[in-house]
Structures are given as structure tokens and as C-alpha cells.
Amino acid sequence: MPSLLDRIRDLRNRLVSDPGFQGWATRFPLTRPVARAKAAALFDLSAGFIYAQTALAFVQLDLPRRLSAGPLSADDVARLGDMPPESAERLLKAAAALGLSERRSGGLWGLGEQGAALLGAPGVEAMIRHHPLLYADLQDPLALLRRGGGGGALSGYWPYAEGHETQAPAVAAYSELMAASQAMVAEQMLNAWPVGRHRRLLDVGGGHGAFLRAAHARAPQLKLGLFDLPAVAEQARAGLVADGLDVEVTGGSFLDDALPAGADLITLIRILHDHDDAPVMRLLRRVREALPTGGTLLIGEPMAGPGGSPKVGDAYFGFYLLAMGSGRARTIGELREMLVESGFRNVRRRPTDLPLVASVLTAQA
């Protein structure tokens, strides 16, 4: 028998799907705001791709920076994009509807509130530029689901997802993307956990060292280590040395090689959700072996289900990781079970200001 909650949900659905009820809800003053918001959300489901492509054209013309320097006319934008003025006007109007641009006096266009926010979040802009690969794989979402993921444009961008060789040219692009978007995640993690209480931090899968730079700014006395694939580690070492940071960089595979010992804090930042369950368990056991008793594992990534951000974890990363060919966003409960099975204890969620950017867990060895 269906539960009481299920019966209530079924009743709700019968009402919401009834055209008569929809018409009444839009006319009745108390329900009209809710009905309008629901209608707008429903339209967004069909128009979301157009919104995303509007944002892509906006950033491809570098309009966040250009408009922040001063208003432009539609003719100015037309020259930038080698397009008719009418097309530039169409783009600017569409961007204004999304808050990216806004009309200014004298027939000019300036940066909108969302455009200003985008300017302050380079990681979001980097993802917008990167999304054509994902959209190519999602052109036929049922075909992607039926083949079980991978095998497309996005999996080629992330060669390790399907076990392909990772040489320097291949890792440079995705390492730069990760570095561009890491600042948002780093801020959430460093606000959630005081890394300064530790002696030595090892960032596993640390890319070009964006998180270590942020951690060093918070706790300059903290000794730092980075572990990543050899091709990534080589690039990271050069950049860190150029910036004058003293970081012990080790190249290897965290699925096949032992992790360097000596750290009392190990971080996994947007690593676990990139991998399937068996590799995740291997990695967690290697982290447990590398940590001393009482050492801390700090995990930060988008998480699914309650306590996480379902739109980001279940919807966005649900399909992104499918197209990539490896991994899944996990709930906090699922990660807790995997951590306990790997020998960790005292697994705790650490609240963050923006769970859609990252949820944070700590566990003790």
C-alpha cells in the first residue's frame, strides 16, 4: 500500500496537472505568485540550453571584461563579433534577460549584475567555455544513457576517466580548467576546516597546486605536499617553484602507488566523484595507510542527495560524469559508509556556505 506521503504527492500531482486548477491558481491572488514562479521554472526546463549558449557567446566575446571597462554600443559588439549590428543587439538583449548585461543611457550596454558575478567567478566562466564538449555528448541523451556513458568528446578531454595514457599535452587543458575553478572550492573548504591546526598537508590529485596556494595564504607555516600523475606533477612543480612555494611534489598514480607518508592532513578535492566505487575504495585505503593514527582526511566536492546539492550532484554531475565515462556524485551517507569500511572513524560533515560549490567531510585515521 502507498504511504500517506505518497498519497499526498499523488493528490498534488493530480491537482497540478489539471488545467482547471492551473487556471484558478494563476487568477487567485494568494496563489498567483507561486503559479507564476512554477510556470517560469517549467519554461526554464525547455529553454535552459538557449540560456547556456547565450552565456557562451557572451564569454567568447570576452564581454564580462569589456563591459566592466565601460559601456559599449551594439555596433561596438558587432565589430568585436564580426556580426551584423542586429545580431549584436539580439545577443545583448538575451544577455540582459539573464542579467549578464543591462541597458545604459545613450543607447549603450553595460555589465549586468549576473555578468559582474561571473566576472568574479573565473571558474564558472571556464566551465561555460568548456561545456560545448558536454553538449556534444548530450545531443542524444538517451544514446548516452544506453551505452552506459563515455566514448565521446568529454571522455577524450579527461583521458584518465577511461584509463587512457595521460601525457603532458593531454593533461594541460584539464589541469588549467581545474585550477580556474578551484578557488571557489578552496574557499569553502578552508572556511569549513582550519588547516592551520595541522603540521603537514598532502593534496592528492592536487593538479597545478591551486588549493595549496590558497592553504599557504591561510596558514604560511603549514608544510605542503602534492601528489598527482607524473605529467601533472611535472607541470605543477615548475609553476610552484616559479611562485617561490616550497612544496614536495610527487608523481604517481593514487590507484597503483603508495602515497607519500608524513602528512597529518590529506585532502581529496573533487577527486572521489570522478571515479567508480572500486577505485574510490582503493584510494581511501591508500590514504588511510599514509595517515598516522589520529590524522585527518578532508574531502571537498559536490555531493548528491540530502545534505548536498541535488541539482548539482544528481542532475549536473549525474550526466557530466556519465559523459566523462567514470564516477558519480555520492551522498554523504554513501561516503560515510565507504570511509568507515576503509578504516576511518569520526566521519563528520562540515557545513559550507555554498553546498552547490562543495560539501565537506572530515574523517580521522
Give me a quick take on this structure:
The protein is α/β, with parallel strands linked by helices.
Account of the 3D structure:
With 365 residues, this protein is of the alpha/beta class. It folds into two domains: 19-119, Arc Repressor Mutant, subunit A (Orthogonal Bundle), CATH 1.10.10.10; 122-364, 3-Layer(aba) Sandwich (Rossmann fold). The protein has 16 helices and nine strands. The strands form two sheets. Strands 5-4-3-6-7-9-8 form a seven-stranded mixed β-sheet, sandwiched between helices. Strand 3 (200-204), helix 12 (210-218) and strand 4 form a beta-alpha-beta unit. Helix 8 crosses helix 11 and helix 11 runs parallel beside helix 12 (210-218). The longest helix is centred in the first third of the chain and has 29 residues, at 32-60. The radius of gyration is 23 Å and the shape is globular. It starts with a helix and ends with a strand. The relative contact order is 0.08. The model has no long low-confidence stretch (mean pLDDT 91).
Q: From the alpha-carbon coordinates, what is the Rg to the nearest angstrom?
A: 23 Å
**Gross geometry:** globular
**CATH superfamily membership of the largest domain, which one?**
Vaccinia Virus protein VP39
Mean pLDDT: 91
The helix-strand sequence is HHHHHHEEHHHHHEHEHEEHEHHEE
Q: Main traits of this protein?
A:
365 residues, 16 helices, two-stranded antiparallel ribbon, alpha/beta, Rossmann fold, 2 domains, Arc Repressor Mutant, subunit A
